[in-house]
Input
Amino acid sequence: MRTSGPSRRAVLAGTAAVAALTALPPLAAAATGRTYRWRTAVMGGTGFVTGVLFHPSVRGLAYARTDIGGAYRWDDRTGRWTPLTDHLGWDDWNLLGVEAVAVDPAHPNRVYLALGTYAQSWAGNGAVLRSDDRGATWRRADLTVKLGANEDGRGCGERLLVDPRDSDTLWLGTRHDGLLKSTDRGATWRTADFPADPVATGQGITFLVAAGRSVYAGWGDSDGTAERPNLYRTADGTTWEPVPGRPTGTAAKVPIRAAYDCLTRELYVTYANAPGPNGQSDGSVHKLRTTTGAWTDVTPVRPGGTDTFGYGGVAVDARRPGTAVVSTNNRWSAIDTLYRTTDGGRTWTSLKDTAVLDVSETPYLKWGEDEPKFGWWIQAVAVDPYDSRHLVYGTGATLYGTRDLRHWAPQIRGLEETSVRQLISPPAGKAHLISGNGDIGVMYHDSLTASPVRGMAANPVFGTATGLAQAAARSSYVVRAGWGDHGNGAYSNDGGQTWAPFPAQPAIAKDAPGPIAVNADGSVLLWSFVHWDGTPYPAQRSADNGATWSEVTSFPKGATPVADPVEPATFYAFDTATGTLHASTDGGLTFDARAGGLNSGDKEFQLAVAPGRSGDLWLSLKGNGLYRSTDGGATFTKVPSCRASYTLGFGKAAPGASYPAVYLVGSTDSGTAVYRSDDEAETWVRINDDQHQWGWIGAAVTGDPRIHGRVYLATNGRGVQYGEPV
Output
């Protein structure tokens, strides 16, 4: 998927390391008030599905992993995915990326997850979860190494494997720390002898796959030569050796995935010249007859000329010998496809050529065009072992499935992976929610239980949204900003249902679109600009709906503009570099400093204005707490009930109350959680629980101005979660 993590972004010592094994905390009840029911606003996938694993011994059971959105279990009877890692909390945000999934063919209820989103120095170490009830409950083993589920190579094969000879033995391949082994079902881990030397900036082990009683390991740090092996094997679980006769050359530099046909005793291996999902321009497919050691090149189509790509996913049909499916990856000119063979790779058929795609359930997959594409970033491919015509493949945005090898539709219900950036709950109109998102722009949610019928906001289509705002006194007027190929800003006069691009935009908008604000009556726009590398630029102002723009030199560079909900002439901005609140009373033409001496240097802050109240400002300053001003930012007072504040929003007031409900992602004496206050932050009630935490949730939260108690929460990889009292 994407650049999706929050901005805060040990090698095993000796021959053994004991990981801490802890039971997950029980459902919290003491700090909660009225029980909340939490659900996901349906968008339909929207993220990179990096792996799918059908259980070989149980019909209709499968697991999926994502790069930042956790793991899921498929139930064929209901046709839905169930999230398995929503219990991971704020401090464990790095564990929402799933590096690998493993199942035990001999024990159908056992499942294992290797978790860790980033292997960078600023990220925490990985962990392994194990379950005896298909992911309903977990036990956890913390590792002393890092994993990288959202880094290059995240679409490679499963790096976690139950040993085919012993269900108590597990193998875990890491990116920078070699091979780990557990002999107590994942409770403790130690380094295993492995002949390849880890590379600090490399890929390490790209997959582990069982072939009979042997285990094969792909190695991603080879140069494709015979002298530097990229495929290893162990037959006894102790000694690893290079596989003889393996292919060499650029097209076989990195082994991506492997699948074993137990009916023919052949191992299919896909290769590329880079780990992917980006950067691949060459690749091949080879198979190894494990009984003789003979290799055969079975590449369906050679990359070349303008048609450059690598090979990614591979799956075999457990019911039909010699039947396999492989995927191309990073094939932009001719569009990626699946190739299927029924004769052991002698001939192949492109399934894309006869595919009929039905995306009526998730219309955003048209990406603003007339017809959807077959997909991109195809590295996860799986064939149902109980149904040869049930095939699924993951893309950078969804999971397609077929039951007849011709008609395809998203098989994605229950799986939501959006990284959400902005939220609006309009006070009027059909939609109760508009969201600004990573990768899929802005969505107008006609319904919370179905993917938006309009798909992504078009005209223009954005990749990632950087700004979203609604005129407080004219709710039909909405503006948005983001990364787009045909414009970076747009407005709507019907509450976000249809859009038009600004008649003009500042030149800097193409390279540095940032947050945008609109004043109370919709007559003035303020657009801030921040390059993707973090460089801020002067804000620009428009008083003619984006036809002309002028620079506002007194606006603090890179700040997020906020409009007063009552006074059209008033805007606010917090300068984190100096810890100063700035305000404008002339429609954004000039800004003056007001309160100073506030916490500075923290990029994770939020300035909000209470709806319907002029000058009633709330400032979230992360670990430094929550501050409030009732005089337009001239002075601020710290809110004593809040220890830390990450994001804050407002909703309909409680019955009998005059002030809007306040919703907070932050910390009180009860810990970091989602809270609601019905008394202007005098007291808080926790409204989420220990099973609904979703990792890092600091981007946005807002209540519904029409329904007291309903709250919408932006997550970094689990879409929009919304809660209601029950």
Notes: The longest strand covers residues 474-484.
